[in-house]
């Protein structure tokens, strides 16, 4: 059974502005030997909706918010014919966690893997799913993942002089439903004053059974903590990869991550229990999202006997780190179809990425080794395929931050930061280490959590550490035995996170903080992997009818 | 001297939503024998602005709202290199009143003359201006002319089930400045509590002189009336065409129209006078926009001695019709460079367009002869150039409404209305009459003013009438001697308006109500003029890199 608490932050603290996440239910993939073809037709459009009981204009799919769930079998080919019915905006959808081997043009990242699909036009995403797991999809153009018409305001606010913070969310959504203007209790009491579109979806269970709960966080800003009152959760999957089972009372989940947990229901339950999702890592007054673990045959509207559970304090990083460190790859070599391999023992290249905030042309930007990512109008994939060097900046990017004595505990000095669309070129068939180095922000004593997501790959999480990463000191302590495979990993305040992957998937892949405002402000890098292979690959030209690739096609047409 | 009261409706009655018109100052063209080239670089972007004293996010050009004024000489070639810095939206700019002879791809109409310019991309508009006059430019994609992020909400509201009216504007802007949250008096008193961005711009004059005032209305919804307290206005130009001079106390101006008026200042003025712009044709509580006719050396902040002038009552159509009927072409055959010709005496084809409201698929639409215009994703101009019949509906459209006994005084019966992207095919070198027939809306006893704008042409306004147009009864009364040339003309409630033009400009031209919500709801038709000539014309391919034309270019590229 699948139940998806899909925690999304909603509604900024400004009151009039709403912050909804475009997208949606995940893709459930199960292991099977018979691969098939799944053909879907989707229409993307703005519509009136009331996800948190206040009506807004949100982007939906086929008239619904969140969009449809895809249930598929490992090996299936999925074809999604997507028609853009927005009025003046382009759109793309990213299939988060799908590696897109052989189909890098289907990754759904505007300016990177494809041109945005123009309003009124149709584009067919076509890709094979490699393995069972829990994945999800979302917009990946501008800040459309936070789509409501307020995304434009947020984009302008964040790019403004001076910058304006977009505000904490006013509600968190579970499966697209949350409460802002209307309390959960109002729903539970059967009062009809709330929109049915924000009515909580209870998780109905029977006593003495085991349930698999699939979780994914698509938040724009918030990090989350998931709890079920008076129940243990056994973590078994992370980002579509099995992990060695472990039991927790609560689970941190960062934007871009997914988990499966097993829930063993009580034999002797009397009544219902709270399911609660609270904010982590930010001192936010966003109330936890609530719904009900409903023990049948009890009515779901019956309130639990006690108050909702209390989440760990927002800045209890010890608790969070303890959770992160429990996640290990499943050691089950004999499990059919399971093929976990530990990482290569040596890397061929290590890229150390220091994130700081810097002021560039009067605007506050996030920078990585002093470079803030700006995306070009021609997709990188097409620019590289056709060797269009003018499509993006051609400088080479540094594998290290320039000052080895940089003090991560103090605000940056803002020396030579620039904006650039340049990329990291990664050759094929090598082992890459990336070490994320967190540091103090512009404000004294401020450093945030950043969940970084890699497109096109899972990676092994080799370890986390405090303070500055020192190669000689820390690489010897990497976990090379059973590091978990993930596509998203967190870097903690004033700390570092090390990961490793093999360049076995030619394409152009974004690696970025999954917090939407941070990416908008430049917190990401682009890996151009296997350039020679890309030039020889068959790329769907329909993904490239814009910018300089569009002009190249145009120029080839002779009347 | 040029002074441009640029009246734009702003801020809907919903309080949080703002309705700003994207675009801007007009193009002033003066007669001259030496033609030149004017090269401009413009960047379009969202920005924080406070046009009516409340801060909003508006679309500006080169960091300003309204955008820059272009001053050119008849015969000049204008090249505008337009870069779209919106985040996820396409953009186009229409050069309202410029006929684009030989450059139909530069008309700036998304889906009609070109593909929307993608976010991040640059497009060069290049066209020659034919004659002196007062013109203006504005967005022509979705409802971007009303751009703020609320345009999306307005688009969804108007397309919703049930429909939601967007509300009357809360303020009217003069040269991009109006007062909603801050009274004009607060500015005049020199109080610093209002944003400088909404500070009224006074018209500074000296006694005993004659000034030319250029007026253009770019409103989304409102019809306007312009007055200067205790001063006469001599009308001399309409839509870039000279008219026989006549004198009025106030002047109606509908969205899409422009005028020049001559103002003779008093010899003995003591102090300042009010300039006021009020709403016509709608029972709106929008207050008039005010600024000051400032007689130097009086300080402009000095209030006039009496209250602002009172505009004619909103529904005093007798007054409005009297004004319309005064407009005649200038009879000055010996004026150098002036070449007014009266219309051909006979038409080759008359198209009678009945506008009604109808419900199509549960949505309220405006229909023309029972057809509601929907725009295709491939621009018509490219589809016709390359004979791509699948790009738009190929049915032929009726030159008459189907029921000759249709009663225009009662709500429509909503029989067989449909949505369609079909066009009227007009051969070259013929004389076309169009008669606009107004009729009752869905609600009893309701019929609105509609200012219709034709792209690619000026037309002769042959006459206005009450009730139903009957060919045999009315065509004999057409003014064929000195009908004014216009590009926009109003049709009054329960009446008709007749116009005539020669098909001397191959291209695809929209003809539509200039009220932005009405066009969004389908109130327009498309004239495909000179199809055979279009197929042979040189069309800027860069205007066509989208939809089926984009695919055609793509398919021509062989690796």
UniProtKB/TrEMBL annotation, chains A, B:
GO terms for cellular component: extracellular region; plasmodesma. Keywords: Copper, Glycoprotein, Metal-binding, Oxidoreductase, Repeat, Secreted, Signal. SUPFAM superfamilies: Cupredoxins (SSF49503). Its cofactor is Cu cation. Gene3D superfamilies: Cupredoxins - blue copper proteins. It is found in: Secreted. InterPro entries: Cu-oxidase-like_N, Cu-oxidase_2nd, Cu-oxidase_C, Cu-oxidase_fam, Cu_oxidase_CS, Cu_oxidase_Cu_BS, Cupredoxin, CuRO_3_AAO. It holds the Pfam family Cu-oxidase_3. Residues 44-146, 159-295, 414-530 form the Plastocyanin-like domain. It comes from the Eukaryota. Belongs to the multicopper oxidase family. This is L-ascorbate oxidase. It comes from Heracleum sosnowskyi. The lineage of its organism: Eukaryota, Viridiplantae, Streptophyta, Embryophyta, Tracheophyta.
